[in-house]
Amino acid sequence: MTALKLGPRQAGEVERNRSLTRSATMPALDRYTGVLYDALDAATLSPAARERARGTVLIQSALLGPVDALDLIPAYRLSSDSRLPGLPLKAHWASAVSAAFAARDDLILDLRSEAYAALGPAPSRDGSFFVRVVTRGSDGATRALNHFNKKAKGEFVRALLTSEQTPADEGELFDWAGRHGMSVNRATAGILELTV
Predict the structure, then answer these.
(1) 67 inside domain
(2) Per-residue pLDDT tens digits for 94-121
(3) For 123, which DSSP code?
(4) What DSSP assignment string belongs to 30-86?
(5) Are strands 128-136 and 108-110 parallel, antiparallel or unpaired?
(6) Which of 41, 70, 80, 156 is most enclosed, with most CB atoms within 10 A?
(7) Domain membership flag for residue 2
(8) Which residues 6+ apart lie within 8 Å of 142 measured at CB?
(9) In whole angstroms, what separates CA 115 from the centre of its chain?
(10) pTM of the model
(11) Could you tell me if residue 117 is inside a domain?
(12) pLDDT tens digits, residue range 33-83?
């Protein structure tokens, strides 16, 4: 319970983890909850949009590493900041995350939080970007968002999955975003800003 940062009322989470290998599973896209997944609203995606997610949307799991959006996974409790005795998650997942990214030669949009991105970096190459969500103040300066960051990322992924054409490169992404009422710009090498 200490490693998972659980209080006495959450003792059932430990028991759930103990029964992982016997638990019911569901697609990762449907399993996860929270602000980002509420905005993504996977349950209302068309069959075509869900199929588009297969092989194009990877979700960083602290327990299972990078999983495909439609991989069947059980319910569990473990997060990027959990401290497991003798098993530092960053060291454990770094090579698997690197391998998952290295297997791709298409446009990579890394929407993970900084904590999950720390479990294994995306490659530094053309066409691979970490995406930050920012808002622009009346003075023109941008600042990062917290709660609305997750909501914007969920809406962004939903828009990509429901789009008829998926951007293949940075230029197409900028064009696509403009046509969909979004603002995506390069901040620095390897970092894009989604402005909301």
Answers:
(1) yes
(2) 999 999 999 999 999 999 999 999 999 8
(3) P
(4) HH--SHHHHHHTGGGS-HHHHHHHTTT-EEEETTTEEEETT-EEE-----TT--BTT
(5) parallel
(6) 156
(7) no
(8) 134, 135, 136, 193, 195
(9) 11
(10) 0.90
(11) yes
(12) 999 999 999 999 999 999 999 999 999 999 999 999 999 999 999 999 898
